[in-house]
Amino acid sequence: MAFKIVASQCTQCGACEFECPSDAIEFKGEKYVIDPNKCTECEGVFELQQCASVCPVPKTCVPA
């Protein structure tokens, strides 16, 4: 299962894009999105999902 970004809560700070080890996050249109085909939930790389750990707004990067 991949993660997703709750667009209505996202501040568009970009922190998640640069922390994603799978390069699964990009700015499209007017919001950040996570490509579910690239998202690995950081399994085998980090204990916690990096998008969620760096996001300044709690519960914005969540399981899809």
So how many helices? 2
CATH architectural type: 2-Layer Sandwich
Residue stretches low in confidence (pLDDT < 50, at least 5 long) are none
How many strands? 4
Give the mean pLDDT.
96
**The top level CATH class name:** Alpha Beta
Count of individual domains: 1
How much of the polypeptide forms β-strand, as a percent range? 15-25%
Bin the helical content: 10-25%
* Helix-strand category: alpha+beta
- Compute the CA-based radius of gyration: 10 Å
SSE topology string: EHEEHE
Record the strand order, biggest sheet: 1-4
* Main sheet summary: 2 strands, antiparallel
What is the CA–CA distance across the termini?
7 Å
CATH level 3 topology: Alpha-Beta Plaits
Keywords:
single chain; 64 residues; alpha+beta; Alpha-Beta Plaits; two-stranded antiparallel ribbon; 2 helices
Layout: helices, strands, pairs:
Blueprint: E1 3-5, H1 15-19, E2 25-28, E3 31-34, H2 50-54, E4 61-63
Question: Could you characterize what this model shows?
Answer:
- With 64 residues, the protein is an alpha+beta fold.
- Helices cover 16% and strands 22% of the residues.
- The chain has 2 helices and 4 strands; from the N terminus they run βαββαβ.
- The chain has one domain (3-63): Alpha-Beta Plaits (2-Layer Sandwich), CATH 3.30.70.
- The chain has helices at 15-19, 50-54; strands at residues 3-5, 25-28, 31-34, 61-63.
- The strands form 2 sheets. The protein has a two-stranded antiparallel sheet. Strands 2-3 form a two-stranded antiparallel ribbon.
- Residues 1-30 form the 4Fe-4S ferredoxin-type domain.
